[in-house]
Design a protein that fits this description.
It contains seven helices and ten strands. The radius of gyration is 17 Å and the shape is globular. The protein is α/β, with parallel strands linked by helices. It has a single domain, classed as Rossmann fold (3-Layer(aba) Sandwich).
């Protein structure tokens, strides 16, 4: 599902943040990438998503080689094929929980009735079936992160990217959010990448790697 070959990204001054990275992630597999602050984990995700341009190498997701796409092509591809989970949730406070989950479907032109049905199904899948009509501000941090997971996969993406998704959560809520993420990746058959500095969070993944000294290798 995800195939990376020879990926490299340099700082503006020319020194490499990471280089010569090869990685393959199978459908339904969640891979965790450990690394200290400043190791380049978030930039690595941004390059894979086409938000930053690689300086060398290729990224292929399914049939799409995204390193060759223009800006319009990348925006269209991300909207349809990528789900993001962030540390700070990024839920819209003026929308209901159900409307937040359905937002990727709205952006992709899905009809209202199907949007509501799929959002309801995804909320049930993350254990929040009774929260659709509530506002995000009435939820706990752990519940908001599970809503964010539901939103990330409601449009059935090929690729799910999670950037420190448990950084703002206590241990119990972090475990619930990670289980929701892991289950969603497997259920949708997506390639999942989780970047974190926490070895506890990384343990939820099927495979753990470490980004250090510009290279990706065993944890």
């Amino acid at each position: 599902m995800l195939e990376i070959r020879g990926l490299a990204k340099a700082w503006p001054g020319g020194a490499f943040l990471f280089e010569s990275i090869d990685l393959t992630v199978a459908p339904g597999e969640l891979v965790a990438i450990l690394g200290e602050s400043g190791a380049g984990k978030s930039t690595f995700l941004n390059v894979i998503a086409g938000l930053d341009r690689a300086d060398a190498g290729t990224v292929r997701v399914g049939p799409a080689e995204i390193t060759t796409l223009g800006e319009d092509g990348l925006a269209h591809w991300r909207r349809r094929h990528v789900g993001f989970v962030f540390q700070s949730f990024h839920l819209l406070p003026y929308l209901t929980v159900g409307e937040n989950v359905a937002l990727p479907l709205l952006l992709n032109g899905v009809r209202a009735a199907e949007r509501r049905q799929r959002a309801t199904e995804m909320l049930a899948a993350v254990g929040l079936a009774d929260c659709a009509d509530r506002k995000p501000g009435s939820l706990s941090g752990g519940e908001m992160q599970r809503v964010a997971v539901a939103r990330a996969v409601v449009h059935r993406p090929s690729l799910v990217l999670a950037d420190e998704p448990t950084g703002n959560l206590d241990e119990a809520n972090a475990g619930n959010a990670l289980e929701a993420l892991r289950a969603a990746v497997k259920r949708e058959g997506a390639a999942g990448l989780l970047v974190t500095h926490s070895s506890v969070a990384a343990a939820a993944a099927d495979r753990v790697l470490r980004l250090a000294h510009r290279r990706l290798g065993p944890a």
